[in-house]
Amino acid sequence: MQSESALRLVWIYPDLLSTYGDQGNVLVLEHRARARGIPVETLHIRSADPVPETGDIYLIGGGEDRPQILGAERLRRDGGLQRAINRGAAMLAVCAGYQLMGTVFGGEEGQPVPGVGLLDVSSGRGRARAVGELAAEVDPALGLPTLTGFENHMGVTRLGPGVRPLSRTLVGTGNGDGTEGCYAGRIVGTYLHGPALARNPAVADLLLRWAVGDLAPIDDTWYEHLRGERLAAVLPR
Ligand code: GLN
Predict the structure, then answer these.
(1) Is the pTM of this model over 0.90?
(2) Cα 96 to ligand 1 centre (Å)
(3) Number of domains in the chain
């Protein structure tokens, strides 16, 4: 049973798309909400289950090509995520999950596979695998600090006019055109693992603000240690 007052997180398809530690993003959101006294309920929705429409923040992670194709097919058929986003839910989509939120992405042989179509992006296969640390400056309109994370993907992503780049890459590949990730409405798409929200708590708070409004400050000492270490490892001094 879902309680009326709790913040509802929905972790989509852990059985297909949870290869790169992206479930950590769920844990970070849970922690940052509870630290502010906001009760949280998390639903783990396996790929055989319908996606509920009543969530506040949806999360989907990265994965290999086959599970990504299967995940896209099931989400398209199910329709619950599309209805949730249309009624204003927020979402974080990572790597394979980011690509499949677009109109089309590249399958194992580079064949075009239809996505869910909630982001105006299209992805195909790049010439080389992008793997390693990434740092990027976030769109100033969002007012967030430098992104840090780890990427591991073959895909390259073209952004359409319906989305804005999340950031400009300083180190790493991201979308493949000097930008990394995108956002539109209350959806953030990114190539970053790490998990992304453990390294970028400001993005976690952006999602939480979209879902619940203003947030009290909390102690970010440990996050800042991690961020400082990872950014110092890749950015020139
Ligand atoms: N299979 C996709 C690609 O290689 C996504 C990989 C991932 O989620 N890390 O581009």
Answers:
(1) yes
(2) 5
(3) 1
